[in-house]
């Protein structure tokens, strides 16, 4: 995820719509902010972040204002515990994502095998395209 965001980009990509806010209304504190950040990250990237440093502070601050949360609460949100895994499942379900099947993996593997030039592979292009195919 890019690090620098203009205000119009924050508004476009990280503003919660009324029907999205319904998902966080019953959550409080670090759980509310953590869920909200994961939700918007997934909505934009179609994946979850691999670590918290992947999420720019400006995004956490912007989302914290909408959720009436202290931005420092995000540091105490644990997305690897049982609750965090449940939140990820809720988010995937909301966006209609299902688990990856063996057939999905085989299709992407076949595509990668046919498009890799072993002497001049553009890793970022291949990675982005593979993510798009899984989406």
Question: What does it look like?
Answer:
This protein is mainly alpha-helical and 135 residues long. Helix content is 58%, strand content 0%. The chain is built from 7 helices and no strands. Helix 3 (29-45) packs across helix 5. The mean pLDDT is 88.
Which key terms come to mind for this protein?
single chain, 135 residues, mainly alpha, 58% helix, 0% strand, globular
H and E string: HHHHHHH
Work out the helicity level.
55-70%
Shape: globular
Strand content: under 5%
Low-confidence stretches: none
Q: How many beta-strand runs?
A: 0
Given helix and strand content, the structural type is: mainly alpha
Main sheet overview: none
Using only CA atoms, what is the Rg?
Answer: 17 Å
Total helical elements:
7
What is the terminal-to-terminal distance?
Answer: 17 Å
Mean pLDDT: 88
Question: How are the secondary structure elements laid out?
Answer:
Elements: H1 7-14, H2 18-21, H3 29-45, H4 57-66, H5 82-94, H6 102-115, H7 123-134
Helix pairs in contact: 3-5, 6-7
């Amino acid at each position: 995820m890019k690090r620098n965001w203009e205000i119009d980009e924050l508004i476009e990509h990280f503003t919660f719509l009324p029907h999205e806010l319904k998902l966080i209304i019953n959550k409080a504190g670090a759980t509310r902010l953590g869920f909200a950040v994961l939700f918007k990250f997934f909505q934009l990237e179609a994946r979850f972040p691999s670590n918290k440093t992947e999420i720019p502070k400006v995004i956490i601050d912007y989302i914290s204002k909408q959720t009436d949360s202290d931005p420092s609460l995000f540091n105490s949100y644990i997305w690897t515990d049982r609750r965090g895994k449940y939140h990820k499942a809720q988010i995937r379900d909301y966006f209609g994502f299902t688990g990856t099947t063996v057939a999905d993996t085989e299709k992407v593997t076949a595509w990668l095998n046919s498009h890799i030039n072993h002497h001049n592979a553009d890793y970022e292009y291949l990675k982005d395209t593979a993510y798009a195919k899984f989406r």
